Structure formats: structure tokens, C-alpha cells
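ok so I'm stuck.
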Amino acid sequence: MLFWHELALAIGGCTVRELRVRMTAQEAEDWRRFFMIRGPAGDKRIDAHFALLRWMIAAGLGSQSTLDDHKLKYDYRQHFPKDIETAIADAIENIDHDIEAFVGKFKKRK
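replied:
not stuck anymore, here's the structure
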């Protein structure tokens, strides 16, 4: 049932009941596969924004990491990381560390 609620939020403009009436089983299955590959939509993927920021900072510091190296690894059966609180706290702590290192690098250039 969580799937239908996530999908209604992602699409917008309809209730779960309305969505289930107007969507074919094949389209619903396509959306389910999409979520399994990409993870949840909308604000639940704020980690993607954190990952982009960390990747840009890391690149500025000379890292050869990829954007995927900085993304949270999702448990797609649950549509969120198994331990979301720890994952977010770690992401924030890592960003703070990266920003300090990035700023320090450019202060040395002066």
C-alpha cells in the first residue's frame, strides 16, 4: 500500500483511490520498477542534493570520486535507508568536514 501513496505524492493531483482507478496494472508495475531502480521521488531524495554538494566539494579538493559514491544506498523494499537518522547525520557531518577542507584549501592560496 505504501507504493500507491508514494506514487500519488510523486504524480500529484489525485488521491490513491483515483490513481488506482485510472492506472493500468502494467503502468503501475512500470512505476514500481522505476522506484526500485531510482528510489523514492520528491523530498525523500534530499540526499541526492547532499550527494551532489559533497561530490562537487570533493572534486574541488581533487577527488576522483563519482556522484554515486556519495549517494545513500537505499533499501528499495522500504523506499528509504534502513537507518535514515544515522544516514542523514553522517551526511551532514561529512558535508561540514568537506566544506572546512574546501575553504581551507582556498585560504592557503592567498
